Structure formats: C-alpha cells, structure tokens
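Field reference: sequence -> structure
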Amino acid sequence: MHHKNRADMIWTEGPIERFMATAPVELQRAMILAMHTGQRYGDLIRLRWSDYDGATIRLIQRKTDQAVYLPCTSQLKQALDSIPRQCPYILARADGRPWFTAKNDKELSKQWTAQTKRCGLYAEDEAERLELGDLRGTAVTLMAEAGCTVPQIVAVTGHTLESATRILERYMARTSRMAEAAILHFENAKATEFANRLQTADMRSPKAANKIERIQ
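Structure field:
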C-alpha cells in the first residue's frame, strides 16, 4: 500500500480561501500565523505574547532546541496586533483559554478538522486530508515561489536544508509557479541582461524580416 508523504500535502489558494471564508476567527488567526511563520504545530500553540515584540517573533523550537528569529510580514503584524491579549499565549480559544493543557495539546487540531468538514475540505482518505501541520510545508513553497533561496527559507522555518529541499522537489513537479517565477527573474536580473539583449538579424531589422516573409 502506498502511503502519501505529508510533504505532498500543500494548502493552495482555493482551499485556503474556502477555509477562511467560514472559519471562526480563532482558526483564522491560526491559519495566518502558521502560513506566515512556517512553524510546527507544537510551537505555534505555545507562542507567548512575550515572544513577540511588535515586529519580530523569537522562539526556541521544542523539537530541535533551535533558536528562530522571525521578522513579521505586514499582514502577520496586522493580525497579531488585532488579537485581544486575554491569554499569555498568542493563539487561544474563543473563551481565552490556551489550546493546550498539561495532558492534551490536540484541541486546536480537532477544531481544525471540524472546520474542514464544515467547509467541504475534509477527505475520507486520511492520506489526502489537509491538516494544520501541512501549513509548515506550504510556507516553504510560498517562500520559494516568492524567490527565496533554500538557506533563506530554513532560516525562517528551522527546517534542515535537506528536508526543505525534499518538500520543494515534491512540490515543483506539480506547479508551474516556480517556472514562471524563474523566467521572471531571468528577464529582470542584472546578471542576465546580456542574454535578454540577444537578437537574430530579422529581429533587429524589420525590413529584413519583411524580406524574409516575401521570399517565403
């Protein structure tokens, strides 16, 4: 039996918009925080307000003990600054309680799954389900599409170079965005100006082009 790798599961624009359209605001906040930071589920639900200084988030990742410095995008900053600080943790339930207790940290994941069912995104096949944790890989692909290098991406997410590269290798096979971004860079980069100036004789001379057409 083939078991799909979670690296194959990427949130794309359509499902994200569908989820956000009807999700409670506390799940919308989780979506934005996860997508704009690329952090693991366990770190997201434990981010404290004291980790955020109004411009950046600093944390020590629980799995790797790696220190991560995250400058906030303008959209993430706007989202964070709109959250009532009724809990020591950035992500909280509607009643202000944290999403985890000493014995259970799965409640946000459960509510996330319930929302995918409500908005028609839930897949019966477990291997095909889009989960909150898949936003970590999604963040990797979005940064790559934006032109970030793999070292730049892992500086944000805390992935190893190898794991980030594996995610991108799987994703690039299914999207044209990477190719479109590459050509955009090729056409606009200083280093490739010489290549973009190359012309054939008929491109340089409209008269020559007309002569060729008459001969044909």
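Note: The chain has two domains: 7-136, 176-216.
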